[in-house]
Amino acid sequence: VQLQAFGGGLVQAGGSLRLSCAVSGLTFGNSAIAWFRQAPGKEREGIACIVSDNDDTVYSDSVKGRFTIQRDNAKSTVYLQMNSLKVEDSAVYYCNTMRPRDEYWGQGTLVTVSS
After folding, report:
1. 81 CA to centre of own chain
2. pLDDT tens per residue across span 81-110
């Protein structure tokens, strides 16, 4: 099983980025997938999740209204559209199953938001 996050980069505050999570080895259509992030010196936090059966989504308060999680079952990919980025959104972003498993953590993708 692999969940590989990519698409990070350097962006100015107020800008946008779209992250992708390519999933393999899982029955993608049956899997709830979540995005997590970890900033330096902070614990990893869950920020967005999309469930498998009806595409319901859940967001943390810190990103609600700015980030959108979507899935493309045909491509086994989950996206995180990030708008109105803030400096405090700077972190390494990871994807995992909704109930994260240690063996599924990848290297993540770094997002840096400059002021």
Report:
1. 9
2. 999 999 999 999 999 999 999 999 999 999
Name the percent of the chain lying above pLDDT 70: 100
* List of residues 6+ apart from 68 with CB closer than 8 A: 57, 80, 81, 83
Whole-number Å distance between alpha carbons of 74 and 29: 9
DSSP codes of every residue in 64-78: TTTEEEEEETTTTEE
Between CA 45 and CA 100 the distance in angstroms is: 11
Tokens of residue 13, six digits: 């505050």
| Residue 52 pLDDT greater than 90, yes or no | no
Q: CA–CA separation, 42 vs 31, rounded Å?
A: 27
Three-state secondary-structure class, residue 6: strand
| 10, two tokens | 């350097």
Beta bridge partners of 59: 48
The alpha-helical segments, DSSP class H, found in 30-94 are none
By the 8 A CB rule, do 114 and 11 touch? yes
